[in-house]
Specification:
This protein is mainly α. It has nine helices and no strands. It is globular, with a radius of gyration of 17 Å.
Amino acid sequence: MSAAPRVAPLPPEAWNAEVTEILQATQMGGRTLNIFRTLAHHPKLLKRWLVFGNHVLVKSTLSPRERELLILRTGWNCHAEYEWGQHAVIGKQIGLTDADLDRITRGPDAAGWEPGDAALLRAADELHRDSRIGDATWAALSARYSTEQMIDVVFTVGQYTLVSMALNSLGVQLDEGVPGFPR
């Protein structure tokens, strides 16, 4: 993560009515996260991106655990400390343990994964490396998941790859109280 943002979060005094409406809808625990305040420099994009991001984050056909395994591995693969930090917090809220988080950093071949979890991490790695899920991983996942869920696997990794690129390129800084990468 860069020491300073390339694009600073938009300060509240610069928010017009459209930005205020969008950012009020994104508040978490009464605060507006740096990612949203940064993307508020482009309110039309932010508004439309939030619709898709909302699907991936809360309306996906994947379970919260499956979704977070994919997001965390993608954030790790993309070296996106902001993404990792936010989703480490979310992951713990839905039941991931410190041991799970450590294993995510070590990948699908780390000891202790159930085969289904390992296949999800492998899919994230293959999408990151090859821009496609390999045949063996596809077969393992499609034996377990519906077509809709398989599409959600691909779009979850794609969404968080895009987000990671934006976070890293714009230099979005960690929000107060959110941990970064494990040391």
